[in-house]
Design goal:
alpha/beta, Rossmann fold, nine-stranded mixed β-sheet, seven-stranded mixed β-sheet, 31 strands, globular
Length: 858
Amino acid sequence: MKQMLWLSLIPLTAFWLFAVDVNGYAPALVPAIVLISLGIAISVVGFLKIDAAYNRGYAIVLLPILLSCFIIPYPYSAGLIVIALAFILSLFAPRMESMWLGTLFAGLILTVQSLSLSIYYIFAPNLHQLVWLTPLLSFLTGLTGLETTSNSGLVYVYAQKNLFPFTVTLEKIGFYPWILIFVGAATLIFLTSQNNSSARRILGVAFASLIYLLVRYALLVPVFFATDLPMYARDRIEIYINPVLLTVSFIPLVILLLGLYPVQNFRFDFSLNIDNKRTLAFLAVMVSVFCLTAAAIFQDPGEKKEGRILVDEIHSLWEPSTLKLDKEWYGEYSTYNAYSIIEWLNETYDVDRIVSPSYENWSVPGATKVLPDVISDRISDEILNNYDILIIKTPSQYQPQEVDSIVNFVENGGGLLLIGDHTNFAGTSTNLNRIAARFGLEFGFDSVNTINGELYHYRRGSLPHPCAIFMPDLDFMTGCSLRMPLNGEPVVLGFDLSAEPGEYASSGFFRETRSNDPTQVTNTIWGLINQAVALKHGRGRVVAFSDSTIISNFRAFFGGTPNFMIGCMEYLNYRNSFENMKQILFLLGIIIGSLAVYLLGKTIWGERKIAVLVIVLALGALAVSAALLSLTAKTEGSIPGRFYASNHTVCFDGEHSDQVVSLGNKSGEYETFFVWTQRVNLTPSIEDNLGAALEKGRILVIVDPIKPFSREETDALLDYAGKGNSVFLMLNETGPGSPLTQAFGMDTYIIEPPLNAQNETLGVNTTQKLPIKPWGLAIEDGEPLLTVGNRVVLAEADRGKGKFVLFTDSQLFRDGFYGEPGYMGYSGSDPHLMTNLEYNLRSLYNLEYRIFEDVLGR
């Protein structure tokens, strides 16, 4: 029955495939619980008739395990939870050895597997391609009967009258499930082997399983072509990422290992005696694990700098910040630049722009240029000496002397933000890599979205980097992959992502023009992909980010972009105080860990292997927990108010409003209205709760409330307005906003349309041509500001030093044309060109400007 222990590795490995979304499958709690239960059940069977000596005093290790379960996040704590359950069983039913031993064994396997995942997360995002294996895998695949050849790191397969390029990657060979099986097998062999034979057997497992990985790769290629490819050939990569299919594909490996290395007879002894030597050894284990964990997550508190930022506009090939977003210049280019985000940063930091001498002669029709702060034909040491942070975004080529100056700037304590974009667009990755390579970083020549082809939505995890402490979420608009050295720090490590190589014959270098071409799905990379990384170099710091689109005016203040930018600025505005602390902690961890192994000595192993391993894991988990508690950055739900100038800030209440802007898979309906506040020199902010919104801005906007206001919230709004601020409520119908309207001394009523005028649209007058009808929701009381017929649609009421403003035709300001669903158009719309509308788009925009400048701005 003990051979069943090999089979328990199958469900325990499958648990991780269902619990962690590495390959695009959302974590599923029910299958995960079922798989753990199955793994425990099989392990219990494997321990039937196994002899074990047990001392109840040994259950003291339950205490550090339980403490760790509350600190280490799920699912990485799953093994510890199962171990705790095993000890609870041992206390109440010590004679049911197979029950608590099987549970304990399953918990040990899960815990060791979680440790292997932490190592996988470090290497996998930076080591996808296994180019050196390409010739061998081409040969093995050819043995299946397919026509194959290899070139430039790809296995080319001729099938179904097409030539398919297959990448050779960690994901395609199945390294993720394999590493879980391997560490589980190594643990099983270590615990059950006799006469010090475990090392030889573990090496045998490694050799046999590596051969299996190569054969598996070769056999899955003909499976890919087993039937005609579906319309969307992307669906066929299920054989590589589906957790069920992945599990099935590794069952033969476990059976093979069972046959090669059957479990030997063993006995477990839990009557471990602790003497001074062993106590010292276990203390060394704790210190070693603490040091190693600290080496991974330690952040140098650093020395704060003055916050002087230089934005490189000499080389800004894309996303310039030198053209003003105002009330006169419209069109896609007006919002596809970084003017607003740089202007906002200037409210907190001292921001300058550097331009080339040719800037004086550069012009864009309709646009107004900013006045430059520094004029030079190149970046130099003399210029950089006056700044603390340098921002480089999607640049043109740098001269070698400029690269040297930038590297020296970082080494001497400067902060560097590198912003790229997808597919080496306009050569930006090539140009960035001239600088990034000096720090061991690399911008890819690919486009990165989810495996399903959707835009990536990042959610902050439990171990955030300092750049992400204000950033619960971040929406991407398609970036590129990033690689970093071992001393790098993942800021945004993307799960379930796919990187597609650029298609340089298509618009934007995207491959979407041939998205249905089946040959385009085999040369992708997927899994864990870096989207933002950081590192410390000398006394300075570097952050690399992959998606310049989200700093554009039309995305700059929602979707997590401002949260990310402020986090980066705060991180980069510190000079390192402990340059080599991570390396020192790592070396200490290795040295003290070696001492622990030496002190434990050979006398402890034998029948007490499992007892020692449990203590080591329990104390190690406690050390990890201590490191997490003491070194993990404290997070915030939004950007603190100190980063906003209240008089220039308009806050949108995201707690009570309908969906104003997009977030994740939720589409916003008022994005153009939101962005257009930037044209009147306001900084818009969308807040998840009313309290945060009231703290930051002088103007609060509530749009189509979907949640009623409590008495306390209403009082807070009345007090907010009374202190000299403005509350702007937009409605399209009665609902949760009506009681708030009444609290400010106003009310609404319905004006019914004539029977023969359902489709008639009347403007305010012949010059404005606003698409407002004289029927619908109307305002009574307050001071009328805009009237159509007898219908008041815009009115205000004073409240102390401030005011309350009500608008009852909110559909007017929704995105879209002709009322579908609104009339505002989109961020790239140019009212000068929209002459075929039944209404005047420019007049509609001017109405918004009038509200924010003349009504709310007084």
